[in-house]
Amino acid sequence: MEPLARLAERLWRFTAGGDPGPLLEDAAVDEAQAVIQVALRTGPGGDEVLDREAVAVVALVHWCRYTVLPKGKCEGDYLYSRSLAQAAGFDHPDQITVGLKSGGEVAGLDTVQVVAEWARQVAARFDASGDQEVLDSTVDHLRARIAVRPDPRLLDAFVSLVYRQFLARPDRVWLLEEAVATARRVLALTPEDDPLRDARTYAFGAVLDARTRISPPGEAVESLRALVSRTADDDPALPDYLLALGRGLTDADETYAVLSRAMEVSPEPGLELLVRYVGVLPSREPEKVLDVRRAIVARMPADHPDRPMHVVALADLLCLAGHPDEAIGMLRSANVEGPWRARALSVLSSAFGARFEKRGDVADLDDAVAHAREAEGMGVHVTDQATLGLALLRRFEHLRVRADVEEAVRHLREVVARAPEDYPERSSWLSNLAAALAFQGPENVDEAVDLQRAALPGAVNRGEALSGLAVALVRRGRLADLDEAVTLLREAVETAPTPVRLCNLGEALRVNAERRNDPALLNEAVGVQREALERCAEGAPERAWMLGSLASSLLDRFARTHHPRDRGDAVTALRAAVDHTPAPVTERSGSAMRLGRLGAEIGDAEAALAGFGGVVDLLPRLAAGELLGSWQSLGNDAAAWAVSAGRPDRALDLVERSRLLLSGGGEVSLDVGDRTVVVINVSRYRCDALLAGPGGVRAVPLAELDHAEVAARAHVFLGAQARLESCSLPLPEKATLVGQVRETLDWLWRTVVSPVLDALGPLPSRIWWSPTRLLSVLPLHAAGALGGESVLDRVVSSYAGSLRMFAREGLERPCRRVLVVAVPEAHGLPALLGVDDEVRAVRQVTTPTVLRGSEATLAAVTAALAEHDVAHFACHATQSLVDPVESGIVLHDGRLGLAAIAAVPGGAHLAFLSACRTGVGAVDLPDEALHVAAGFQAAGFRHVVGTLWSVEDQSAAEFTAAVYARLNDGTGLDPARTAVAVHEATLSAREEDPYDPMRWAQWFHSGP
Which of 40, 263, 613, 929 could pair with 638 in a Cys bridge, judged by C-beta atoms 3.0 to 4.6 Å apart? Predict the structure, then answer.
């Protein structure tokens, strides 16, 4: 069947049966094109003629397709059907009927328009389906027709189709040359006043733009310049003309100007314009660059092949612009894969690093390293390895983990070795390596200077390179180095007087002034640093560092002149540095420490409080290693100055903050209800009792208590205690040691307990003691005058490791689920002969679950703890006074340590630890935050009975029986009676031997 007959059948099925399917098939379009090719003939006189019936059928086919296709997909069919209908002699396609019979060949019709429309249909089909065969055959047909009749409309169509051929096969350069030649030809045939001339000029520019990869674009540029010059600003085509001109320009300034105008006259700039525009935007317009990149990503389809590149570029720019949160969110949601993944991970690493600088969350440092490590592992580019080195270096700067700086040095060495000599970023990587080496230790200072010198020649930013070398020279500190550093920094400042360079110059001048004893240099340093601060933006992170640097110069000058204004200005500068939240937390905490020490030195309580208190407030954002190291006594020192400043409530808050940090963090709570809690703050500056109760917080100065004497007394006490536990002693030596213990209790009474009880006035029935520092290893609950009154005779004592335990209110109820863990024999430790007596004592008042001997394994005990209300341990304990994390309960198959105890789920009521030494914290840690008893309270046990030193077997059994007898209320064990039960059992034990506190003073109660 011929194509015309098949088309007629498709029309009949649609018009008669209402089935549009046959008309919408691709085959229908193929048949229509074949009919048009056949319909064009040459008449007897050599003119082209059309088969009117064939043209009419094709017109009607496209008209019917137009009527059934959805909007947006039918416009081509509409235009083509109108053109063909008019060529066949109809005013409109709806006048055509399928029953039309041949009217013969019609001469004089516009066959060129039919061919041109046909070519447009082929172009549209190729764009949609990539049908290369139809495209090639149509180009061949057009090429033959143009050779006979070079009508501009056919030339337009030919340019369009040949250009598509080239785009599909870019290796066939001759196709592009043919398109350029044809476009030039049609432009020459078009008069200046022809309405189509602008469109043809634009098409000529487009194909010439593509040819710029082969030859200079001068011809196209001149044509497009002329086109732009005669186009009005309100012409809708002007943005496209400007974009085409911008494509061919080589001068950066002219390209920027042309594309900027295109952006101005475009109601809604297209994607290509945005992409080209952002490529020429100068760096001096970062906000505009950011806006354009946002627009690119917003308009680019999700499946566009270039989208990952633009998402990564936008995220990188967001980091530089101070928006790391947005960058992180964008990259996480984009989940970039493929060739851009490594770069995306590197930018994500930088974003986490930037966010850390703003927030101080240590987790961001870890995320920065993790993402950089993944990027580096992909092995795509040297920059990814550099990102890892920089992430490690940043983490070291803040957390001071030695392994980080060592790995950073290793990676940066490899980066510098891999990067070509002329690589743009190599200079900055040399500087980064120099900084890492300087952090590693003073032994690397010479290499750091050499690296900074090597970075100077190839530096993109010479001023920054000069500054980096100068800083390295100041760090090395030779007199010649200091002179050179000042010279280099003066040059850097002349290049661009940035705040950082000015501050570096001021620091170099200060150090030089100190070494040369030159007051003029010091005065210049102060002036330069003040200028740096004037130029520095208020929200700049580096402002805190500059304030600290100025404070150093002011204090150096005060040491020479003793002018009080310099010292006052230094205090003001350090206060501002502490309060500058955009700065890195390590910078702020360093300034806070300096402020605290300065305030303490000059007796300025407010300044000392602002400094030491500022460090405590920042501690949660610092590394754990620093918390347990150089910051140990800060909470106590800050609290001491808070008392001096008349703020006892702030003092208590500071003590609690430092405690909670050491025990894993949490919310501070100062609400103690109707209790009376006595927090003993021990500091090198002063010692006080902070009395917390229903009326608030008040401070009682403990004038006779000194932190150095606390340490000496604690060591004497612990030494005597250890000696008394170790072996059988001659009676005279034992009497001497017991005398030291009694003297300690007398000293506690005189310096701490008696002043507190006197300050309280009418005593409550119960007091909660909360000692700090080494006072926590001493038995405050047993303090008493030699031969006189004792705290045991005045009040019931309990201990509170933290006031937070009072916030965990719970309903006390009788407990019947009791667990007894009995381990009479443990490897390497002496047998406990009284264990079975303790088990019998518990069984006298309740029916417990007993895990004895080999049954008391780590797994069995851990599982059982979660199922019982009361846990009684009759076994050995290990207590490390140096590393309390190593403390724990000794079971049949190992040690139940603090971490395992604290991880036990549930809300148990009472843990009775008759094991030895369960309530002594570390000698080198601030207070009782870490010991076995505290571990049980962290695990949820509201009440804990523990010991401060070893207990004799018989004494443990007797004390256990006495306590449980008092806890038994007939329905079970009442944990609310625990404090009174321990107190009364202690009094009973004291009656048997009042002169030997080693036999009765070791027991204590901790809990609400």
Answer: 613
- Which tokens belong to 209? 């733009």
Torsion-angle region of residue 738: left (phi > 0), alpha (psi -120 to 50) or beta? alpha
Are residues 860 and 822 in contact, defined by beta-carbon separation less than 8 angstroms? no
Contacts of 435 (CB under 8 A, 6+ apart): 393, 448, 468
Cβ neighbour number for residue 671 with a 10 Å cutoff: 10
What gap in Å lies between CA 123 and CA 160, rounded to an integer?
8
**CB-count burial class (<10 Å; 0-12, 13-18, 19+) for 793:** exposed
102 has a pLDDT exceeding 50 = no
Q: Which residues pair with 946 in a beta bridge?
A: 1004
CB 691 within 8 A of CB 760: yes
- Collapsing DSSP to helix, strand or coil, 655 comes out as helix
Lowest mean pLDDT among 176-185, 481-490, 713-722, 862-871: 176-185
Cα separation of 587 and 595, whole Å? 12
Amino acid at 698: R
How far is residue 713's CA from residue 944's CA, in Å, rounded to a whole number? 26
Report the first-to-last Cα separation within the chain, whole angstroms: 100
Q: Sheet with 888-891: list strands edge to edge.
A: 877-878, 888-891, 894-897
Q: How far is CA 517 from CA 59, 412, 473, 505, 521, in A?
A: 99, 39, 19, 17, 9
**Distance of alpha carbon 942 from alpha carbon 979, whole angstroms:** 12
850: left (phi over 0), alpha (psi -120 to 50) or beta: beta
Non-local (6+) Cβ contacts of 49 within 8 A are: 40, 41, 42, 43, 105, 106, 107, 109, 111
DSSP string, 424-464: TTHHHHHHHHHHHHHHH-GGGHHHHHHHHHHHTTT-SSHHH
More confident position, 772 or 360: 772
Band (75; pLDDT cuts 50, 70, 90): low
Burial of 597 (0-12, 13-18, 19+ CB in 10 A): middle
Angle in degrees, CA 269, 272, 274, rounded to 5: 50
With 0-12 / 13-18 / 19 or more C-beta atoms within 10 angstroms meaning exposed / middle / buried, residue 149 is exposed
Contact 578, 591 (CB under 8 A): yes
Query: Residue written as tokens 């590393």?
Result: 883
Length of the chain: 1008
Reported as a single tens digit per residue, the pLDDT across 839-884 is 888 888 888 999 998 998 988 988 888 888 888 988 887 765 444 4
Split at pLDDT 50, 70, 90, the class of 625 is very low
Q: Are 380 and 342 in contact (CB under 8 A)?
A: yes
> Could you tell me which of 934, 429, 922 has the C-alpha nearest to residue 663?
934
For the chain, helix, strand, coil in percent to 5 are: 65, 10, 30
C-alpha closest to that of 881 among 847, 805, 932: 932
CB-CB contact of 391 with 354 (8 Å): no
Cβ(408)–Cβ(389) under 8 Å?
Answer: yes
| Arithmetic mean of pLDDT, 154-161 | 83
Query: How far is 186 from 200, CA to CA, in rounded Å?
Result: 8
